[in-house]
């Protein structure tokens, strides 16, 4: 193993800050993976690695697996351990929008199977881990090569409404996962050793224990040439990927410097989040992100596993037109008006979903409506083709306004607009969101 010169306190602080920003997506990913793939007793378990858990019913406030959930495209979760061999993903012919986006341990996307990228035909796709150089079997529609040995997928498949659930479920059940050996009907390779998975602790994100988790996860993440300098600095701090990092072994002045570095990083993240009102550039492949680790961390914080803009564009409001942040439906009512020709332009569809703060989850309301969009039954457009949404806690008395009501909690909230298959005008910024207009106070 390479020998590294121990860092000074100043160097340790800088490394801890850079390492926390870079490593934050890995820990947030593990925070989700642990209950789903590692802990069989957790109600969120998908049943281990290499198995799908599908959601066919629309999400409600009772669903808390992921923040800012959507009811446009119910989820299909799965996790893969690629240390022993690749896996084969099989999809049927699909008559609707869908996407299976595979992400590395740091949430960078490996590749996509779906309506936009690979079409709607049936096919087999190989998912291979770092360094795999085996022979690719014939008859495959594509190969996805990951940079980490642990990979996840949060698939989405279009749901037209409650009556469409049986048809959606029939499609989801045809998403198949098999180890390559099973696909080829050959003997399976010797299984890798079972890691000593650390139990997830929420406190880890804000303290030196962060690097204990990061050190464990790095054993599944071979060093990339583009990240060697940072990985070397982390190794000098003791975060080598051995899974043996021990905060108690740090000298007091170095531990204090690491704690300061973590605080520095958290402050940088909070500052960066304030300027991120839309999803452009927040999510994507490793090539798309490059070394913009802070941008990736912002995306993870604002919407873990968000899709890249070319797949689905996300927007929202950091404040209303009067500068109030966040918007608060206990204080006033709101409207969103899309002028004629400015309704979100989408190849597939669009929706606006509302979440209570700070949880960023759906909130109970009397009509069980958590989002509104171009597929919502009964929505009334203006005579000129424009559209006005009414965002408030109490149902409007006017029937037209009630038809376009997006219920809000009696308190702070946020709205996320999703545009699936966005028009180029969305991606280049020539189409923009209208303001969230605050009405008179409710007091």
UniProtKB/TrEMBL annotation:
Cited SUPFAM superfamilies: VPA0735-like (SSF160935)
InterPro entries to which the protein is assigned, alphabetical: DUF1214 (IPR010621), DUF1214_C_sf (IPR037049), DUF1254 (IPR010679), DUF1254_sf (IPR037050)
Domain DUF1214: 319-423
Residue ranges annotated for the DUF1254 domain, each copy included: 50-179
Pfam families: DUF1214, DUF1254
Database matches in PANTHER family: BLL3101 PROTEIN
Protein name: DUF1254 domain-containing protein
